[in-house]
Amino acid sequence: xxxxxxxxxxxxxxxxxxxxxxxxxxxxxxxxxxxxxxxxxxxxxxxxxxxxxxxxxxxxxxxxxxxxxxxxxxxxxxxxxxxxxxxxxxxxxxxxxxxxxxxxxxxxxxxxxxxxxxxxxxxxxxxxxxxxxxxxxxxxxxxxxxxxxxxxxxxxxxxxxxxxxxxxxxxxxxxxxxxxxxxxxxxxxxxxxxxxxxxxxxxxxxxxxxxxxxxxxxxxxxxxxxxxxxxxxxxxxxxxxxxxxxxxxxxxxxxxxxxxxxxxxxxxxxxxxxxxxxxxxxxxxxxxxxxxxxxxxxx
Length: 299
Ligand SMILES: Nc1ncnc2c1ncn2[C@@H]1O[C@H](COP(=O)(O)OP(=O)(O)OP(=O)(O)O)[C@@H](O)[C@H]1O
Hints:
alpha/beta; Rossmann fold; six-stranded mixed β-sheet; four-stranded antiparallel β-sheet; transport
């Protein structure tokens, strides 16, 4: 179990992480989402003791990361695959991790097999690895100590479609065996497929969290009408928020029945009126983080 309570991190006057609280539970994959610069990496760095928070606590199974005697056997961490030492071979990188954790040498070969790096590839220097190979190497190091918690920042970056599918299965299996997974990703489809729970961050603050299915269910009502010019002001007068999809349909933040009544009262025939569940994670993400999107700000 990962628990963050009121974590705040400032850089000078800038608040990168602002009073962030959430839990990632055993047996679940928790997807951590947010626009560029929202504070995901900083939050993860606080969790694994690389950045000191100005306020709040971050714990794994109730303990501070710094208090874990052999952290690698409890928490597998992959934060920045491109930060691995380029001069070492992949194998050397894993041998160092294996020795630090006090594990038998055979774990190195086992992990190379788990992440499908060949013996030949493992003898190459990391600087000559592709990003996808570095990710695989980082995942191997994270899994080496057979931890029960995984913290992964953008692990799908650079993986090919087969690699993404492989990682998806790996994380699902890990969680199904009772492990806790916290992973950030920009790949919303990836998160939509794999995550059980979601934590959405924008401008350093949590804007939504909960079970993925519940969050997607609360996506609102989808309305399609040739009379949008009548429906929009009627919704505004009722104090109901709405947004426009690319195809000119509206996503309205109210129950289907209520939206139907308002449209009826406005004399607007509807072509479609249904829960906006199908809109999926992308719509929810853009709506929740609208005020923090660079593109939104520019517009
Ligand atoms: N060491 C630092 N000094 C100053 N500002 C920092 C530092 N580290 C992070 N920040 C700022 O904190 C904010 C959050 O950064 P962070 O890397 O956590 O975002 P992120 O959500 O992981 O973004 P991305 O999706 O682009 O990786 C950004 O505005 C970033 O510039």
